[in-house]
Structures are given as structure tokens and as C-alpha cells.
Amino acid sequence: MTYQGVKNFSHAQADKIGVLITNLGTPDEPTTPALRRYLKEFLSDPRVVEVPRPIWWFILNGVILNIRPKRSAAAYREVWTDEGSPLLTHTQAQTQALRAAIQKEYGDRVVVEFAMRYGNPSIASVLEKLQAAGVRQLIVLPLYPQYSGATSASTFDAISADFRKRRWLPDLHFISHYPDFGPYIHAVAEKIRAFQSEKGIPDKLIFSYHGIPKRYLLQGDPYHCECYKTSRLIAEYLGLTKDQYLTTFQSRFGREEWLKPYTDETLKALPSQGVKSIQVVCPGFSADCLETIEEIGQENREYFMESGGEKYDYIPALNADSDHISMMHALIEPQLSHWLSQPERNASATQAYANALGADQ
Ligand SMILES: C=CC1=C(C)c2cc3[nH]c(cc4nc(cc5[nH]c(cc1n2)c(C)c5CCC(=O)O)C(CCC(=O)O)=C4C)c(C)c3C=C
Ligand SMILES: [Fe+2]
Ligand SMILES: [Fe+2]
Predict the structure, then answer these.
(1) Which of 114, 183, 228, 299 sits 20 to 30 Å CA-CA off 329?
(2) C-alpha dihedral, 25 to 29 to 30 to 36, nearest 10°
(3) Residue 29 — φ and ψ, nearest 5°?
């Protein structure tokens, strides 16, 4: 085994700090073959599907990858724009905005990029780019506010799998979650407030989070508690009483029980309990994507209205809102200032040391 070194290394290159934003990832196009590629990578991740590998191999390759890609491609076509997948375009806009804010403050000593856990641009390709740019200190910020093994830890797996192949590793600061971070709660709560000042106050506000299998919670995954904590903090910020909001879980996959209450079942039941107007917000999604635009914006709207609901609104994700960018800036700030307060480590220090040793440079 040979470890991969830095190509064309120059001692004249100044060391940089990298900020890597990541999200889940999305197919390259809304077509059946692209969905098969994407779902194969995604659903082969043992962090996502915790089923013994040989059994899962047969279910995935024999059943799921023959049925789901076509169905999912049709769903993706509903949300696809001229620029591409919403998840990708929102992540690009977030990266550009954060890069502009960071470089305005610190200049080009700090490099900001994004990568996707599944699909493109891959984590490995962006880590390669960052290393070539001279990044020796790296902050990784997965845009998952609530920690789950299926998302946050899976991102860490991808980073460390890449590092295992490398000769020269950077200092690493990994932000594993931020469910109760003040600027995050502020950003979501103010988004809700601004929305309500235009559309009015509903009978109930629904906080809908992506689900995970209940088994993961029972095995010690903190995701469920972190979702409830985020809802509670946003509700407290807005001064809501307990009967004015609900936390639910959406996007079930497979047959086993997932975290409850389920969003779809809840929305079908609410009108008969006298709840005729609702607003749904998805604080676990940092960017609008298939699961918010199609599932919450369209599918669940139909469930609610067909069950006797009268008014249904989806409150968009934070996307590239300036409050969201300030939140990201505030999340990385302590580690950035720590590294920036240290003397700049660059080429010349290494050069002087090498010269003293008489090494050939
Ligand atoms: C926000 C956190 C997310 C968690 C937790 C999560 C867990 C999880 N997801 C699946 C299966 C699928 N998810 C799919 C789409 C999808 N999931 C998230 C986020 C979380 N998933 C996002 C942001 C998206 C949308 C991506 C986009 O391109 O817009 C899909 C693909 C769509 C489909 O075919 O229906 C699947 C499949 C599991 C099994 C899981 C936890 C174990
Ligand atoms: Fe998902
Ligand atoms: Fe819990």
C-alpha cells in the first residue's frame, strides 16, 4: 500500500484553512439510470441501512434498485429546475454566500467549498482540491442540525475513508451537530415569524423532521431527542404554548417502524380534531429538496386538504438566507479565530528548517 502524497508540492505555497460544507447529495439528473446510481451509493451505506450486508445486498439489488429509481426519478422531475436539483443549487448558493462573507473578513487565507456525501461533487474529489490548494487545517460542517449516525457519522466516515488513503492529513475540526445553537434557533424562528406576519397565525405549527428507524433510537441514536429539543427551543423563542405546535417525522423508507408521530398520518387526522389551518416547517433540512418541496409542499398538502383541512402552508427552509449564512459563520468562528490567531504556518518555516538540515529543496 502506498499512501497518496501531495502532488507538485511547493514550499512557496502558503498554508490555508479550509471550510468544507457538506450535505446529503442528489442525483445528477432526474432519470432512472442516474437515480439507480445515486440510490445504490446512498442505500449501500451501512450507516443508513443497518441490516446485515448479505441480506441487504439481495434486497437492494434484487428489489429496490429495480423498482425505486423509476418512481423516484418521476418525483425528482417534479422539483427539478433549469439550474438542476434544488438541493444542489441551494448548497451552491450557500457556499458562495459563506465564501464571500469569510473572505471579506479574512481574505484568501480561508478557502470555502462544498461537497456531497452521495453523488457529486464527492467528498473525496473536494478534499483532493482543498489539499492541492494548500489546506492544512480543515473545518467540516455537515448541514445536518440534528445529529444522527445515518447522516453526521456517515459524513465523518466518508472524510476518514479518504484520509486513510492520504500521506499528509490536515488538522481537523468536525462539527457534528447544532440543534440548540442560538443563531440557528434565531434564524428558523425569525423565518417563521416573518412568514406569519404575511400569512397569519395557523391553528397549529407543525415541525416536521426526516425520520429514521425507531430501532436506531432504541440503540442510542440521539437524533429523536435533538429534533424535540430544536422544536422546543423555537417554540420558546416564539412564545408558543404546547397546544400550538407539534413535532412529527416524515419520509419513511421500508417496512419497519420509524420515529413517530408520522407527518402524513398526523396531517390526515388533524382536521377531524378541529385543526383546520396549519403551517409546516422543516428545521432539519438546511436546504429545500425533494423531501420538502414534493413531500411536504405537495403530497402532504393533499392529505391534509382531502381530510377536511382548509389552509395549508409550507414555510421554506433557510436555504441561502442571510440569517442562515450568519449562523454558519458563527458556527465556524471559534475554530477559525483559534487557527487564525496562531502564527501563519507557511512554506518559509519548513524551508528554513530544511535548509538548516541541509536537505535538498
Ligand atoms: C435531514 C436529515 C436526513 C436524515 C436523518 C435522513 C435519513 C434517511 N434517509 C433515508 C432514505 C432516503 N432519503 C432520501 C432523500 C433525502 N434524505 C434527506 C435527508 C435525510 N435523510 C434529504 C435532504 C433528501 C433529499 C435529497 C434530494 O436530492 O433532494 C431518499 C431519496 C429520495 C427517494 O428515492 O425517495 C431516500 C431513499 C433513510 C433510509 C434514512 C435513515 C436511515
Ligand atoms: Fe433521507
Ligand atoms: Fe427522545
Answers:
(1) 228
(2) -70
(3) -150, 160
In a domain, 136, yes or no: yes
336 lines ligand 1 (CB under 6 A): no
Number of neighbours of residue 128 by Cβ within 10 angstroms:
16
Residue bearing the CA closest to ligand 1, atom 16: 291
User: Is residue 36, in this structure, part of any structural domain at all?
Assistant: no
pLDDT tens per residue, range 81-115: 999 999 999 999 999 999 999 999 999 999 999 99
- Residue with the three cell numbers 382531502: 306
Give the domain CATH number at 251. Answer: 3.40.50.1400
Q: Is the CB of 226 under 6 A from ligand 1?
A: no
Mutate to test the pocket of ligand 1, among 66, 85, 210, 281 (most ligand atoms within 8 A of CB): 210
Tell me how far apart the alpha carbons of residues 317 and 192 are, in angstroms, rounded to a whole number. 10
From CA 345, how far away is CA 332, in angstroms rounded?
Answer: 20
- 152 close to ligand 1 (CB < 6 Angstrom): no
- Residues 305 and 333 grouped into a single domain: no
Identify whether the C-beta of residue 244 lies closer than 8 Å to the C-beta of residue 278. Answer: no
| 212 CA → ligand 1 middle, Å | 9
Q: What is the pLDDT of residues 162-196, one digit of tens each?
A: 999 999 999 999 999 999 999 999 999 999 999 99
Assigned domain for 256 exists: yes
Is the domain of 93 the same as that of 242? no
The preferred substitution site among 47, 250, 251, 282 for testing ligand 1, maximizing ligand atoms within 8 Å of CB, is: 251
Query: According to the annotation, is 291 in a ligand binding site?
Result: yes
- Say how many Å lie between the CA of residue 154 and the centre of ligand 2: 12
- Show Cβ contacts of residue 83 under 8 Å, excluding neighbours closer than 6 positions: 89
pLDDT of residue 361: 47
Instruction: Please tell me if the CB atom of residue 320 comes closer than 6 angstroms to any atom of ligand 1.
Output: no
Q: Which ligand is nearest to the CA of 224?
A: 3
Atom in ligand 1 nearest the alpha carbon of residue 23: 23
Give me the number of domains the chain comprises: 2
